[in-house]
Design a protein that fits this description.
Blueprint: H1 7-13, H2 24-35, H3 40-43, H4 47-57, H5 70-73, H6 77-89, H7 91-95, H8 111-135, H9 139-152, H10 156-169, H11 172-189, H12 193-209, H13 213-226, H14 230-251, H15 254-269, H16 273-286, H17 291-303, H18 307-320, H19 325-337, H20 341-354, H21 361-378, H22 384-392, H23 395-401, H24 404-415, H25 417-423, H26 427-439
Helix pairs in contact: 8-9, 9-10, 10-11, 10-12, 11-12, 12-13, 13-14, 15-16, 16-17, 17-18, 17-19, 18-19, 19-20, 19-21, 20-21, 20-26, 21-26, 24-25
Length: 446
C-alpha cells in the first residue's frame, strides 16, 4: 500500500490529505514506512495515517461526518448547487483563516503495538552502542549489539552494520553471510537501492580478501547494477586487472613451454606457418620471459608477410634480452622486406654493438651489405641534382652533415681517403658514414 507509485499523486489530489505533503515530520514518517512497512503498527496512533490509508484504499474513513447530497439537505440537486455557489461568493468565508480541526483522541495502543514500539526503541539503542564499539575497534562487542538489535527488531541497517563489524574483525565468511541476509530482507521490504548496493560491494570486498576474485568481480558488478559509484567501479577494475595477472602467472609452465616450442619448430619445418604461430604463441604464454618464443614467432610472421608484427615480436625479444642477436637479425630482415633499408642498416649496427666476440659478425655484415646494395639499386641513374634535392629533404642526413665532428672527418677523407678507414673503427662514426654512403653523399667506387 505505502509502496504505491502513485501514492503522492493520490494524496495531493485529495483535499483531506493535500496539506499533509507540506508537513516535513509527517513525510519523514511516511518515507520510513515505505522502507520498513513492518513498522506500520507503530504509527497507527497518528490519526493522519488513517486518512492516508483511506485515500490509498479508496475508503471514506470520516466516520460520523454529516452526510452530503440531495437526500441529506432535503433539496434537489439544483438547490444544493445554488447554496454552494452562494457560499463561494461570500467574502468573509474566503478571507477567514482556516480553522484548525479539533484534535482527534489518540486511539489506545494494543499490547502488540506497544511491544513492537518498545522493541524498536531498544533495538535502536543497541545499534547505537554497537556503532560506538565499532568506532573503538571493539568488534566483538559491536557484533553482539548489532546481533541483539536484529533479534529484537528487523531493520536492514542492523544487518549491514553487522557485516561491516565482521569484515573488520577478519571474519569474511561471516561478513558475506550477514550482507546476504541483509540483501534478502531488503528485497522483501523494498529497501533503498543504495543500501543494497553497499551490501553487495562489501560481499565483493570480502571475497577479494578470501582470494576468490571471480566471486568478488561478480558482486562488484551486482553493486554497480543496484547503484553505480566510482569507488566500487575502481575496485571492480582493480580486481579484474589482478585476475588477469594471476591467471597469466598461474599459466606459466616451463615444461609445457618447451613442448610448445618443439611443436612450433616441427610446424615451421613443415612450412605450416599458421600452426607454428599458434604453437609459439602458446610458448610465450607458458614462458613469457623467454625471448626465443617472440623471435621464433617473428620468423613465422616474416614467412606470412606480416612484417610489422615481426618487428613488434623482435622488439619484445630484444627487451627481454638485449644480447639476443637472432632477434636483431630477424628485425633487420623484416625491415629489408618492407624496403626500409635505412632502418635495416640501423638494426644491423645495433646488432654489431651487442654481438659479443663478433660471433655473428658475418651474418650481420651480409644483411647490412644487402641493404646497402638495395639502396644503391633504388637510386641508380639518379642525377647529382636529384640526389641533392633528396638529401635536403632528409632531416637525418642534414643533421649528420651539420655535425662539426663529421664535417672534420669528411674533410680529412677528402684530402686523405685512407684516413676514413681509421675512423670507421668507431661504431657510431661507421653508422653515420654508411648512412651518407647510402644516401649518395659519399660515392665510393665499385
Amino acid at each position: 500500500m505505502f509502496n504505491d507509485p502513485q501514492m503522492f499523486q493520490k494524496l495531493a489530489s485529495n483535499p483531506k490529505t493535500a496539506h499533509l505533503l507540506a508537513d516535513q515530520e509527517f513525510m519523514s514518517k511516511l518515507q520510513r514506512l515505505r522502507t520498513n512497512p513492518n513498522d506500520v503498527g507503530l504509527e497507527m496512533q497518528d490519526p493522519r495515517f488513517l486518512q492516508v490509508m483511506g485515500v490509498l484504499l479508496g475508503i471514506d474513513m470520516s466516520f460520523g461526518a454529516p452526510p452530503t447530497g440531495a437526500g441529506a439537505s432535503g433539496q434537489g440537486s439544483s438547490g444544493v448547487k445554488e447554496e454552494e455557489d452562494e457560499d463561494e461568493e461570500m467574502p468573509d468565508l474566503v478571507s477567514a483563516p482556516k480553522k484548525e480541526p479539533e484534535p482527534e483522541p489518540e486511539p489506545e495502543e494494543d499490547e502488540e503495538t506497544k511491544a513492537a514500539k518498545e522493541a524498536k526503541a531498544q533495538a535502536d539503542e543497541l545499534k547505537k552502542k554497537g556503532t560506538e564499539f565499532y568506532k573503538k575497534r571493539q568488534f566483538d562487542e559491536a557484533i553482539e549489539n548489532y546481533t541483539n538489535a536484529w533479534e529484537l527488531h528487523k531493520d536492514i541497517a542492523y544487518k549491514t552494520n553487522l557485516g561491516a563489524a565482521k569484515f573488520e574483525k577478519g571474519d569474511y565468511e561471516g561478513a558475506i553471510k550477514a550482507c546476504e541476509e541483509a540483501i534478502e530482507y531488503g528485497r522483501e521490504v523494498h529497501a533503498d537501492f543504495k543500501i543494497v548496493a553497499k551490501a553487495f560491494a562489501r560481499i565483493g570486498t570480502a571475497y577479494e580478501k578470501l582470494g576468490d576474485l571471480d566471486s568478488a568481480i561478480k558482486n562488484y558488478n551486482k553493486a554497480q547494477t543496484e547503484h553505480r559509484t566510482p569507488e566500487v567501479l575502481a575496485k571492480l577494475r582493480a580486481a579484474e586487472k589482478t585476475k588477469i595477472t594471476r591467471d597469466r602467472q598461474s599459466y606459466i609452465n616451463p615444461e609445457e613451454a618447451e613442448k610448445a616450442r618443439e611443436l612450433g619448430n616441427a610446424k615451421f619445418k613443415e612450412a605450416n606457418w599458421p600452426d607454428a604461430v599458434a604453437a609459439y604463441s602458446e610458448m610465450i604464454k607458458r614462458a613469457p620471459d623467454d625471448p626465443r618464443g617472440y623471435s621464433n614467432r617473428a620468423a613465422c610472421m616474416i614467412k606470412l608477410l606480416s612484417f610489422p608484427s615481426a618487428v613488434s615480436d623482435c622488439d619484445a625479444a630484444i627487451k627481454l634480452d638485449p644480447k639476443f642477436i637472432r632477434a636483431y637479425l630477424r628485425k633487420a630482415q623484416a625491415y629489408f622486406a618492407m624496403r626500409e633499408y635505412s632502418k635495416c642498416i640501423d638494426v644491423c649496427t645495433e646488432a654489431t654493438e651487442h654481438d659479443e666476440n663478433g660471433k655473428n659478425a658475418r651474418e650481420i655484415a651480409q644483411q647490412e651489405q644487402k641493404a646497402l646494395q638495395a639502396q644503391f639499386s633504388a637510386r641508380d641513374g639518379e642525377t647529382e641534382e636529384q640526389t641533392m634535392e633528396r638529401i635536403q629533404r632528409d632531416p637525418e642526413i642534414v643533421s649528420i652533415l651539420q655535425d662539426p665532428i663529421m664535417q672534420s672527418i669528411l674533410q680529412q677523407a677528402k684530402d686523405n681517403p685512407a684516413a676514413l678507414q681509421e675512423h670507421l673503427k668507431n661504431a657510431q662514426i661507421k653508422a653515420k658514414v654508411q648512412k651518407l654512403v647510402a644516401a649518395g653523399v659519399i660515392r665510393m667506387g665499385r
